[in-house]
Backbone:
């Protein structure tokens, strides 16, 4: 039956000045400023010089052998990370979702941990352990096994892939676990009845059914890895291994942030955008061929597969994986933060708290924490409201051009952070009469553009749950349009707005990729500060600050869990 | 309480006309059930009454108050119409407790706290929900949520209460109970209720009067349950209100035959009916077994359904269905598959054949 | 005919966090013979689905054993458990469970491919199964492009393609609209006639069960209440629960005094009923609304009046006070009374039940939460 006409909006729309129109206009204007202008500036600067169309810069960059090598590295890393991360994610998702392996709850929580921490901390930790020249573990192995050379070298493509896999496999893991949970178990039972053995059911039924979840997660890994800055920059610099994002950074850094360097960066950005765009096209194509509904019927516990003899070995494997990717890096960072000087053996007499004192007395550390808090909280709050506003306009008011609104607000999500930063620099360092460069505001603007889609997505989903009859019932009960918004709609999506805030606040707190290009002398963020300390060779100090950051992240996540847990029955 | 009048109402969505020149009156203190197949525009009509869409022409009046008049450009906004509504999906606000839900309309009328509390509790008492006053909707069953919605619709003493498929989401036993309860509440309060449904059975159980809408949005009959059942206005009403057999008739040499592949003489044609091009419609339980009847059919199968037996008969080349109540089965005896049996048609109705209608 | 499915002392216990131990299935004993259509009927939480899942092999037994086609497939004592894929069953689920990533042909061919049948045989048998389920021509279509009824037909075709001896149907019609439900019911019976398999049919819809079954089992709270043919169950229900569950019921609480029977709340006028010898002082008389004789006030029966008249399509419903209760009476339209008119009601051969205690009701609602 056709009852879903949004004719209430149409009825209200007849009045001259109304909230709906104002909200729609505000959306368009803000999105234009935050998203469209920076993107336009990149394209303009890459292809136009002094107002004329000029391809020479772009082709020059395209043919530069260093850039081509970087592009090749980027692709290799991304592909290997995606393949290995997907296999790992699917395997553990199945193990926790469908088998009778013990301690599921604990393991599931632990498997999500890598998602909380920035990968560059992991890169730092592994660099400390397995650096090709001075890694602690390497030296330990050489001395105990009397080897002639270092057994491992994390400063390699393989090393970069290893660290990225350990931080990005949760993308696939989380998607597939939830798909397995929502899957109607009778789909599998039916195959058993049809005569298929358990193994056959997994290959012929279960895996094909969660394919959409797998490919969605895999492409998330692919696009994230393509645009990733932290890990390749920490592990690759020493060996001269560049990827496109680190290459862009070094080009700008080496030219001291001159306009020329930024223009080169813009041209390189276009290359990166092309690669990411190809990945997105691929995603569209893969997803469109397998979009089906597997959530049906009454909820039933799926029959868990008995692992029998394989139970203990698999449990051991899972625990080892967790130790390797979660515990070891975290412990390493904490340990190093206590060491008197980098390189000393990890013995109790070499431990000190002095690094903490030093790092907090150092210039800019406290400021960096303050900056990060300010930028992330502000970005979180602003995006929470703006994202909800856009979501409301798109879902409920449905004006002409709502498709454009939707695309524009999602766009920055697919654009690599590095690219976005260049766009923001080009737009807000005077070219348009506004200069924000070297202030915290430019970081804030970049964060807002980058994370807007997070809150918009959660609010959209929540608004879809608010059936229009709820608002209509309020109107019929005597509430005006504004009152029904305030009394019904907003309270109902408030939990989603809050989680939208944290979805922005948490990653913004640990952000490096975007801020590394935008920070000025007084506007370092927490991530940038750790990165610079390490870059300057002050590894124990970097580790000390990283430990503080880890503590902060754990505390914040705990608070989030507590807040989202006891939510009133919505 | 007041009556509701729709006069010459037309609603159009871009190119699609939902209904045009529609008129209907709901009398004060009565339950009018508006019944029609899904997609016929029932819900659109309700939304026009509530002020949730805007008709192109016509007027809507509740009592003396004009809510909508296309010519005089009157369009009272939804929040000022003072109409109670119960939606199919309950539309109980999940973030408010039961009492908060029911108090909300009174709060919007800026009543004082004492009065709000008293009237809300009274409304909850009507639907037997006082003990759940401080529950959240998520702690209630579907039936209880719908009770809350009913209390919320009653609490302001609205001029009229609209119920849009209020029991469709409930299970069979509960549906029956709710119908009885709605009926009782209406009796107690003397409320005017416009009840929308696609299910003629529940409409019959509830209504004072019933209005039947066609797929194209036109009104084809409005009357008491007795009128509708015993004197259906046309073939559409007859077919819509219950399952029936249709058997084409033909006339040859002045005699009337049932045209079932082979021609079976039919003597019971009432005087004044011209059988040419007509079809005879008979309800399943109006086909009765009669050993004396010259019309004979073969039993294809018999299914026991509890209160009745369902027979499938082969009459000539046509399949017809018969319902025999268990009581009749006891007096007449049962007929087994394969046997031949005489049948008689009670209360037959004669309508133009489907071909002739087009 | 040989017994094809035999359950002996089958028991299943669950332990739940919130409600403690629940005996979902308590000592079920039954046998279903070859070619029979046997229904498990009962409210949710009565144990019918669990029993079916034990027969299919998705659940283990706590006690007892199950025999299928002469072979023990589950036995606690012998510690025997045959996995579902080796039981040779056909099964259709409520949610269709059609694999969305395979087209119609592949869905139906799957069981045969598992058996490593050669291609020409697969083609032939799938074509045959599709023909019998009216799906011919839709081979290349994907399930998401088909209606609910067609999806359920795919599930049926997939179940019959291996020609199983036993077909398990787990509420296969509940997700379909009422019209389609009836058509599908006939189609299932037709398939059974053609292929001769035994059916176990699980449903909570009594009308559906009565229409399709040769025999049915009514269960409640994990116990078997009564097993019989639909006619016998409807006409001679062994207790009030079965009476109420099958078809519409009218219950009148009565008092038995000095051999006379009075409706509760009116001891001036006796009902013309004879209480059975074993009757207690307070009993429940049960009958069907359409089996109560409604006559003019001068006839034999309980003198009362019409409280309310409701016209339904195929019958008229009258609400009539009897003592302190209101009784529902259904008659054909030709028995016409006006509201308020005096009349007589007479109960024809009613059933007699003891007054049910409230504890049973409570237990039932507790189990439905599980």
Residues:
């Amino acid at each position: 039956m056709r009852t879903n006409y949004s004719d209430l909006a149409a009825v209200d729309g007849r009045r001259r000045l109304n909230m709906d129109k104002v909200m729609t206009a505000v959306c368009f204007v803000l999105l234009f400023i935050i998203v469209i202008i920076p993107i336009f500036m990149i394209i303009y600067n890459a292809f136009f010089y002094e107002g004329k169309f000029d391809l020479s810069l772009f082709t020059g960059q395209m043919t530069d052998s260093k850039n081509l090598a970087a592009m090749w590295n980027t692709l290799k890393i991304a592909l290997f990370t995606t393949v290995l991360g997907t296999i790992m994610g699917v395997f553990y998702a199945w193990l926790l979702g469908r088998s009778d392996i013990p301690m599921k709850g604990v393991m599931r929580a632990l498997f999500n941990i890598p998602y909380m921490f920035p990968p560059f901390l992991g890169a730092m930790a592994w660099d400390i352990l397995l650096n090709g020249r001075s890694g602690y573990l390497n030296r330990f192995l050489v001395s105990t096994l009397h080897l002639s050379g270092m057994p491992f070298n994390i400063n390699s493509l393989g090393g970069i892939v290893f660290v990225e896999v350990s931080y990005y496999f949760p993308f696939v893991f989380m998607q597939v676990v939830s798909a397995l949970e929502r899957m109607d178990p009778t789909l599998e039972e039916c195959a058993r009845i049809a005569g298929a053995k358990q193994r056959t059911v997994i290959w012929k039924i279960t895996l094909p059914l969660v394919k959409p979840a797998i490919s969605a997660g895999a492409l998330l890994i692919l696009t994230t890895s393509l645009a990733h800055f932290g890990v390749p920059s920490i592990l690759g610099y020493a060996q001269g291994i560049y990827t496109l994002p680190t290459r862009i950074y070094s080009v700008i850094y080496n030219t001291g942030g001159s306009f020329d360097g930024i223009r080169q960066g813009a041209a390189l950005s276009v290359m990166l955008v092309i690669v990411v765009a190809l990945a997105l096209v691929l995603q569209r194509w893969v997803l469109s061929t397998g979009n089906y509904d597997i959530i049906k019927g009454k909820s039933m516990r799926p029959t868990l597969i008995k692992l029998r003899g394989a139970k203990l070995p698999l449990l051991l494997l899972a625990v080892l994986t967790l130790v390797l990717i979660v515990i070891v890096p975290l412990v390493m960072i904490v340990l190093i933060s206590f060491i008197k000087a980098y390189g000393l053996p990890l013995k109790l007499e070499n431990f000190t708290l002095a690094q903490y004192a030093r790092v907090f007395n150092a210039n800019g550390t406290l400021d960096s924490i303050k900056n990060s808090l300010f930028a992330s909280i502000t970005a979180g709050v602003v995006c929470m409201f703006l994202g909800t506003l856009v979501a409301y306009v798109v879902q409920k008011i449905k004006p002409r051009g709502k498709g454009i609104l939707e695309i524009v607000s999602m766009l920055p999500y697919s654009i690599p952070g590095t690219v976005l930063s260049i766009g923001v620099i080009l737009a807000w360092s005077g070219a348009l009469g506004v200069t924000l460069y070297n202030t915290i505001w430019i970081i804030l603007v970049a964060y807002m553009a980058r994370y807007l889609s997070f809150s918009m997505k959660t609010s959209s989903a929540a608004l879809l749950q608010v059936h229009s009859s709820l608002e209509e019932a309020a109107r019929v009960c005597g509430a005006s349009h504004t009152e029904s918004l305030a009394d019904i709609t907003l309270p109902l999506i408030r939990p989603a707005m809050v989680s939208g805030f944290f979805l922005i606040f948490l990653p913004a707190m640990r952000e490096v990729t975007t801020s590394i290009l935008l920070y000025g002398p007084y506007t370092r963020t927490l991530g940038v500060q750790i990165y610079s300390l390490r870059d300057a060779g002050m590894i124990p100090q970097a580790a000390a600050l990283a430990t503080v950051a880890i503590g902060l992240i754990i505390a914040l996540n705990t608070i989030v869990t507590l807040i989202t847990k006891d939510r009133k029955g919505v | 309480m007041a009556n509701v009048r729709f006069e010459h109402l037309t609603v159009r969505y871009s190119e699609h006309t939902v209904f045009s020149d529609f008129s209907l009156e709901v009398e004060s203190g009565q339950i009018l059930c508006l019944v029609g197949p899904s997609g016929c525009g029932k819900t659109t009509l309700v939304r026009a009454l509530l002020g949730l869409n805007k008709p192109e022409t016509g007027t809507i009046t509740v009592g003396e108050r004009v809510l909508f008049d296309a010519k005089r450009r009157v369009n009272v906004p939804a929040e000022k119409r003072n109409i109670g509504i119960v939606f199919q999906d309950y539309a109980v606000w999940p973030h408010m407790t039961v009492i908060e839900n029911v108090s909300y309309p009174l709060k919007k009328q800026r009543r004082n706290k004492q009065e709000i509390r008293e009237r809300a509790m009274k409304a909850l008492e009507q639907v037997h929900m006082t003990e759940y006053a401080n529950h959240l909707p998520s702690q209630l069953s579907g039936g209880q949520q719908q009770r809350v919605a009913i209390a919320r619709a009653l609490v302001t003493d609205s001029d009229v209460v609209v119920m849009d498929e209020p029991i469709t989401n409930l299970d069979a036993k509960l549906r029956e109970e709710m119908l009885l309860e709605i009926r009782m509440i209406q009796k107690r309060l003397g409320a005017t209720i416009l009840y929308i449904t696609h299910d003629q059975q529940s409409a019959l159980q509830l209504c004072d009067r019933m209005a039947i809408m066609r797929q194209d949005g036109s009104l084809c009959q409005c009357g008491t349950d007795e009128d509708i059942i015993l004197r259906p206005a046309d073939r559409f009403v007859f077919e819509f209100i219950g399952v029936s057999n249709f058997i084409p008739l033909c006339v040859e040499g002045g005699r009337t035959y049932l045209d079932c592949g082979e021609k079976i003489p039919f003597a019971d044609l009432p005087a004044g009916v011209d059988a040419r091009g007509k079809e005879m419609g008979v309800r399943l339980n109006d086909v009765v077994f009669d050993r004396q009847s010259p019309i004979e059919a073969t039993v294809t199968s018999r299914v026991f359904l509890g209160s009745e037996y369902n027979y499938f008969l082969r009459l000539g080349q046509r399949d017809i269905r018969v319902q025999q109540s268990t009581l009749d089965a006891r007096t007449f005896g049962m007929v087994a598959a394969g046997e031949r049996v005489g049948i008689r048609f009670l209360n037959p109705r004669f309508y133009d054949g489907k071909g002739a209608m087009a | 005919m040989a017994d094809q499915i035999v359950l002996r002392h089958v028991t299943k216990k669950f332990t739940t966090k919130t409600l403690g131990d629940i005996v979902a299935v308590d000592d079920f004993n039954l046998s279903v013979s070859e070619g029979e259509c046997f229904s498990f009927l009962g409210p949710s939480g009565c144990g019918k689905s669990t029993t079916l899942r034990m027969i299919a092999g998705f659940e283990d037994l706590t006690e007892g054993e199950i025999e299928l086609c002469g072979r023990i497939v589950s036995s606690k004592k012998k510690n025997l458990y045959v996995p579902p894929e080796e039981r040779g069953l056909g099964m259709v689920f409520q949610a269709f469970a059609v694999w969305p990533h395979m087209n119609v042909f592949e869905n139906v061919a799957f069981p045969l491919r598992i058996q490593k049948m050669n291609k020409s045989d697969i083609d032939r048998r799938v074509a045959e199964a599709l023909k019998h389920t009216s799906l011919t021509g839709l081979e290349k279509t994907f399930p998401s492009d088909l209606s609910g009824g067609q999806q359920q037909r795919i599930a049926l075709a997939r179940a019959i393609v291996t020609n199983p001896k036993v077909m398990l149907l787990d509420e296969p019609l509940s997700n379909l609209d009422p019209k389609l439900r009836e058509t599908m019911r006939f189609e299932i019976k037709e398939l059974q006639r053609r292929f001769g398999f035994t059916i176990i049919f699980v449903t909570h819809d009594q009308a559906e069960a009565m229409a399709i079954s040769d025999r049915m089992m009514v269960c409640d709270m994990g116990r078997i209440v009564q097993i019989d043919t639909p006619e016998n169950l409807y006409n001679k229900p062994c207790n009030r629960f079965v009476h109420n569950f099958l078809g519409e019921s009218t219950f009148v609480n009565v008092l038995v005094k000095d051999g006379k029977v009075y409706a509760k709340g009116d001891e001036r006028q006796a009902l013309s009923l004879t209480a059975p010898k074993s009757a207690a002082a307070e009993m429940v008389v049960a009958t069907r609304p359409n089996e109560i004789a409604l006559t003019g006030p001068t006839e034999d029966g309980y003198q009362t009046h019409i409280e309310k008249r409701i016209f339904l399509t195929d019958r008229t419903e009258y609400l009539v006070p009897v003592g302190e209760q209101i009784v529902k009476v259904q008659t054909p339209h030709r028995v016409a009374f006006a509201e308020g008119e005096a009349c007589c009601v007479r109960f024809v051969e009613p059933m007699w039940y003891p007054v049910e205690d409230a504890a049973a009701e409570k237990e039932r609602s507790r189990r439905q939460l599980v």
Observations:
- Chain B has two domains: 4-239, 244-357.
- The first strand of chain B starts at residue 4 and ends at 13.
- The domain at 4-239 of chain B is CATH 3.40.50.300 (Rossmann fold).
- Residues 198 and 213 of chain B are 10 Å apart (CA to CA).
